[in-house]
Amino acid sequence: MANESRPCPCGIGDRFDYEGCGQEVQVEHIKAYVCKAPASTDKAVVVIHDIFGWQLPNTRYMADMLAANGYIAICPDFFAGREAWKPSDDWSKFDDWLKTRDARKINKEADAVLKYLKEQCGAKKLGVVGFCWGGIAVHHLMMTYPELKAGVSLYGLIKDSDDISNLLNPTFFIFAEKDDFIPLHQVTLLEQKLKKNCKVDFEVKIYPGQTHGFVHRRGEDISPQDKPYIEEGRKDMINWLNKYI
Fold it and tell me: Which residues form the Dienelactone hydrolase domain (predicted)?
């Protein structure tokens, strides 16, 4: 149990025993999980983990799903060797922990990963998806790296003051209606700013009745009423990548 006075609202997910179909590799100063598509391809997707880190089985499951859909999928350790958050950690210390892991200060890791994909995997068409902490990172990268042709940000927290409109390529934003972390007014504000200032394609979508982490941390077989939305979120993510990469 996390801190009783403020329990961790993030479950770690349902796929504790999922082994993964890919392999771990060293990419310059960081490790990464890589899963190749069944057939040769020059399309690749960077998968950015949430607070629970690059080894979370649920996130590897999503990387494998992308690989099965025709992409080289790579999930690097964007914490660069620092410990991921654990559900048993004291939630009252989360804010201090997070200050040392800024989702907008990952360019060194992103540079290494993009170079690896191009030089070691033959990737020419690149995209990025990210969950929670990784959703924030996707937003940052899509405003920074023009070679990323498509991005999908899943429940990445946005703040009113953020510079959020200068996307370089099409980006899809997935949110949950009942997300304890992200108030719907922030989602509305994001959409308003994008409509006013954004020069590329984007979409902001809220999935009814869903909670934080629903696309990657919930098993389709866990809650029948959520299954259609979990599957819809995953399908929407893949369709967006297919459209622009």
Answer: 30-244
Give SS3 for 124: coil
- Active-site residue, from 49, 139, 140, 212: 212
The region of weakest confidence among 11-20, 131-140, 163-172, 193-202 is 11-20
Q: Is 132 a catalytic residue?
A: yes
Q: Are 43 and 72 in contact (CB under 8 A)?
A: yes
Give the mean model confidence (pLDDT) for residues 20-46: 96
* 22/19 Cα distance (integer angstroms): 9
Q: In this predicted structure, what is the pLDDT of residue 217?
A: 86
CA distances from 35 to 43, 44, 76, 114, 159 (A): 12, 10, 11, 15, 33
Please state, as a whole number, how many other Cβ atoms lie within 10 Å of the Cβ of residue 144. Answer: 14
Q: Is 8 a catalytic residue?
A: no
Ramachandran sector of residue 80 (left: φ over 0; alpha: ψ -120 to 50; beta: rest):
left
Cβ atoms of residues 71 and 43 within 8 Å: yes
The DSSP call for residue 83 is P
Confidence of residue 162 (pLDDT cuts 50, 70, 90): low
What's the rounded Cα separation, in Å, for the pair 96 and 229?
A: 33
Residue 212 annotated in active site: yes
Catalytic entry in 35, 77, 132, 216: 132
